[in-house]
Amino acid sequence: MCGIVAGVTQRNIVPMLLDGLKRLEYRGYDSCGVAVLQQGAPRRVRTLARVRALETDVTAEALDGSTGVAHTRWATHGVPAIDNAHPIFSRDEIAVVHNGIIENYEELRESLREQGYVFNSQTDTEVIAHLIHSHYCGDLLAAVHNTTRVLRGAYAIAVICRDEPRRVIGARQGSPLVVGLGDDSAFLASDTFALANCARRFIYLEDGDIADIVHGEVRIIDPDGHEVARDIRAVAKHEDDAELGAYRHYMQKEIFEQPLAVARTAGHVHSLDTEPFGNAAPEMLTGIERVLMLGCGTSHYAALTARGWFERLAGVTAHAEISSEFRYRDHVKERGTLVVPISQSGETADTLAALRYAQSMGEALTLTICNVAASAMVRQSRWAFITQAGPEIGVASTKAFTTQLAALFLLALTIGRRRGRISDDEAVVYLRQLAGLPDALRSVLAREPQIMAWAEELHGKENALFLGRGLHFPIALEGALKLKEISYIHAEGYPAGELKHGPLALVTDAMPVMVTAPNDVLLDKLKSNVQEVCARGGQLYVIADADTQFTSSPGMRVIQMPAYYGPLSPVLHVIAFQLLAYHVACLRGTDVDKPRNLAKSVTVE
Ligand code: G6P
């Protein structure tokens, strides 16, 4: 979603703000802007182009000041337009950047209009700026505090004021905001990653907190106006994971990082003596009868894939719930339920709310599987398993997905052993397969040239069907999601057995049908489904295990995968679909890492 960087330094803050915006650009990119206090007034530069263009404009405008706020926007209220880009001003005295949604902005806007405020944007943010202005009597902290009392909804804000040139105030409710501490400076950001070059120590603000930064000093105030102590955490410098290196896009880089990411996530579990869930395991896993997984987007598909593992390896009931649906349903509590939120970012608003809802319904056993150790979900949850994918920049998730799968497989295996569902000998075989996964993934990545040849044939299409069965049905869903997200080709994933209940009507010689075909117990059923497509002239593209006997023939192209890889087979097949979506998108010339209308981390409902 949107990104915030702000701060007070001893020198010109503009280069730091721009560096932070570049790091945050993957989160939101409809527009961006920066404002500093310069010569007794806030001055701003905004653009509908990327941060690189903003940098040029900022230089041309000679923006220079030691106190500033900056923002990348993903539009919610108001179209992407310069007037709606942040920072938003009130009467050239107050400048605000804001992430989130103010739900009562319409009524607030009316009352502010009656007080004579003129609105220059369609944003909900402008009510925050004018409210702060209307409350301002020489103390920005008091004005922000009084403003937050009337705001409803989710927000993270950073505010500067003409009359207090060495001060920036931050506040959060629902949306993430951190304070970064430098040597002689202090910053605010929506993500520690934004401050990788200027801070090593961070304070994670809690809901309702207000941060008051004056020069390099920071005070945290709670909703009652009392100063509170918050832990300061050291965060190691982000590795160069975030550099593009020789790759053309982050998505491509992240696809190729998967062997390493999976090895980092699960590679330490060599033998039955290693307990992947640490000291928490006995309390967490004893008596588990049911696993309730919560997630959105690709993380939901990880849950759908793992559902089969929990049933097969652990013999427990498993539910994969879409967070935005689950949070508004009537949850029926059952004994022995482990709630497992799954999230790359750990900040997705719906999954966080679904976790809180489950907790409010009495679910105490919560284990978040997440790629960001300091995220809201990890902090909210009783236990956490941190995947080791490293920063994922491409909006379309790839390495986060496969590392989530590795973590979920370990969880299913661990519960299965505790319940006596699988023997030690069987567990050793599964662990060996997990350990061999990075090499197996490399061998799929080596098929990239064949997949590129398919992409040449497919990039002119406007529709595609993806079929799979059993453990591979979620891989068909994920293959379709990847293609539609980044190439804008309409794609649908279906369980192959459902073909004749509707989608078969779409099959003509103009319809490409992608199939994920492992050599599992459903292979013969899948082959029958494939024949149904052949008989209607559909163009088949089959990702088939080497031992399935699928061979290329008129109307059917086949890429031979390695031999069947057991229950971990979905992890291999998804790589082929990721590469396919990537190369189709490249040929269509889309913005692969920042697809239109989408955001990396969806921190609004
Ligand atoms: C967005 C991203 C997806 C991601 C989903 C869930 O839609 O574009 O790539 O799968 O959010 O995000 P999370 O961080 O909770 O996994």
Helix/strand layout:
Elements: E1 3-8, H1 14-24, E2 31-38, E3 41-47, H2 51-60, E4 67-73, E5 88-90, E6 94-102, H3 105-114, H4 125-135, H5 140-148, E7 153-161, E8 167-173, E9 178-181, E10 186-189, E11 201-204, E12 210-214, E13 217-221, E14 227-228, E15 233-234, H6 250-256, H7 258-266, H8 281-285, E16 290-295, H9 297-314, E17 317-322, H10 323-326, E18 337-343, H11 349-360, E19 367-370, H12 376-380, E20 383-386, H13 399-418, H14 424-445, H15 448-458, E21 463-468, H16 473-487, E22 490-495, E23 512-517, H17 523-535, E24 539-545, E25 556-561, H18 569-588
Parallel strand pairs: 16-17, 16-18, 18-19, 19-20, 21-22, 21-23, 23-24, 24-25
Antiparallel strand pairs: 1-4, 1-10, 2-3, 2-4, 5-6, 6-7, 7-8, 8-12, 9-10, 9-11, 11-15, 12-13, 13-14
Helix pairs in contact: 1-2, 3-4, 4-5, 7-13, 7-14, 9-13, 9-16, 13-14, 14-18, 15-18, 16-18
The chain binds 6-O-phosphono-alpha-D-glucopyranose.
EC number: 2.6.1.16
GO molecular function: carbohydrate derivative binding; glutamine-fructose-6-phosphate transaminase (isomerizing) activity
GO biological process, one term: UDP-N-acetylglucosamine metabolic process
